[in-house]
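#structure-requests
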Amino acid sequence: MTGLSADPIDVLAVTDAVRSPAHGAVLTFEGVGRNEFAGRPVIALEYEAWAPAATKELEAICEEAAARWPVRVAIVHRTGRVGIGEPSVVIAVGAGHRGEAYDASRYCIEELKRRVPVWKKEIYGDGSDATWIANGPGDPRR
């Protein structure tokens, strides 16, 4: 289970996709919207993605993690409007041991933020203009 979703992410389904009797660790990371950035109130986020490329990169990241560590990985990223506190990305990792799960999960989120063509718009509650932010290095909001 890896890809994009215009609907709220079923965190349990993503986590269940990586479970195995051989796994002593199942780690789920939820990236959720926070209600402020640099003192500005954020009331919602909106995500757009170049779906064919984004899906291909998410699958590649899962494969790379599985090649580096003995893990099973699933990643789902939201598109559309996402409320504060709702998951915009879920990464689940099943592994024999917790260290491998943590390492693979960190690798996946960092690579996702670096490579996957997803754009986030922060919608502010103070009436100021919304800001679009692309994945890639250099922006602390990524």
